[in-house]
Amino acid sequence: MPNDPDIHVVMDNASSHRTALIRDWFARRPRRHRHCTPTSASWTNQVERFFALLTDDAIRRGAHRSTAELEAAIPAYIDAHTAEPKPFRWTRSADDILAAAQRFRQRTLSVQSNCLDTSEPGH
Q1: CA distance 101 to 18
Q2: How far apart, in whole angstroms, are the C-alpha atoms of residue 26 and residue 105?
Q3: Nearest 5°: CA angle at 42, between 40 and 43?
Q4: How far apart are CA 48 and CA 55, in angstroms?
Q5: Are 33 and 7 in contact (CB under 8 A)?
Q6: Is 118 helix (H, G, I), strand (E, B) or coil?
Q7: Distance from C-alpha of 26 to C-alpha of 9, rounded to nearest angstrom
Q8: Counting Cβ atoms within 10 Å, is residue 37 exposed (0-12), middle (13-18) or buried (19+)?
Q9: Burial per residue of 51-66, b for 16 or more beta-carbon CB atoms within 10 angstroms, e otherwise
């Protein structure tokens, strides 16, 4: 319909969203516009952190007796959170974060090396 608004679809930058199937789907729907979030975007970490708080504070700790109660708990938590917003504060220094990433890299390389060393010939 000519008066329908354009629809903007925000997706993460996963390789599954860049396949020919997805490109063709958008090509057949010219009023839909794809926007991919930047890879490793720092703001997505904050969004993920908010959802972790929501999960920990409102979903796991709740005693929801029905789906309706659970569905009501989510906007109630969001309303309470936005009534007195507080910024996320990173408590680790960049050096601490980089050191943790390096430790993870070393563990990963160690596990990978062990997996390659224990494989049987011909497999």
Answers
A1: 28
A2: 37
A3: 120
A4: 10
A5: yes
A6: helix
A7: 10
A8: middle
A9: eeebeeebeeeeeeee
| CA 71/CA 64 separation, integer angstroms | 9
For tokens 């390789």, what's the residue? 15
Backbone dihedral region of 40: left (phi > 0), alpha (psi from -120 to 50 degrees) or beta?
left
Of 67 and 109, more confident:
67
Instruction: Round to the nearest angstrom and report the end-to-end CA distance of the chain.
Output: 58
6-51 per-position pLDDT tens digit: 888 777 767 777 789 988 988 998 888 887 776 666 666 777 888 8
